[in-house]
Specification:
Layout lengths: L1 H14 L3 E10 L3 E9 L7 E3 L2 E7 L2 E7 L2 E5 L6 E16 L9 E16 L3 E10 L4 E8 L2
Length: 149
């Protein structure tokens, strides 16, 4: 129910926004391969966009889904075509532990998190991003992706 609500909200934002994007990378604590997508609004105030995203991490007998509600502050630079952004926001973290042995299976849990990010994006869409997470969010994520224009 909650996941469908989040997806519906993100889809409605995507309809009224400037672009969507895809991302992939790695995380630490837990160490996983991570992939996902985002939407990004036009500026809601000067230099600030709403950039909600979903990231799924796999590996280490754990699947982690992060529903991140993030805002990005775009730093105006004289040098184009690259732009730098800073931001962050809260996250809903769904963790599922699984294994071949039923005794290894830890079930699922839901928690909260908080992310801080820094990134650089080319005007044609290629971007790189580093996130630092607190609470139940992975401690660090390093991602690359593409924002469709």
């Amino acid at each position: 129910m909650l996941i469908s609500l989040v997806l519906t909200d993100i889809a409605s934002v995507a309809h009224a926004q400037a672009h969507a994007g895809v991302r992939a990378g790695v995380s630490a604590d837990p160490g996983q391969f991570v992939f996902g997508g985002h939407v990004e609004t036009k500026p809601i105030i000067t230099h600030v966009t709403f950039r909600p995203n979903i990231e799924v991490g796999i590996g280490g007998a754990t699947t982690l889904a992060a529903f991140n509600i993030e805002f990005a502050y775009w730093i105006p630079l004289d040098r184009k075509p690259w732009r730098v952004y800073l931001g962050g926001g809260p996250a809903l973290i769904v963790r599922s532990v699984h294994g071949d042995n039923p005794r290894d299976s830890g079930g699922s849990d839901v928690g909260g998190g908080l992310n801080f990010m820094v990134g650089i994006q080319h005007s044609k869409g290629l971007f790189g991003e580093v996130k630092v997470g607190l609470i139940d969010s992975p401690s660090v994520k390093v991602m690359v992706g593409y924002a469709f224009k």
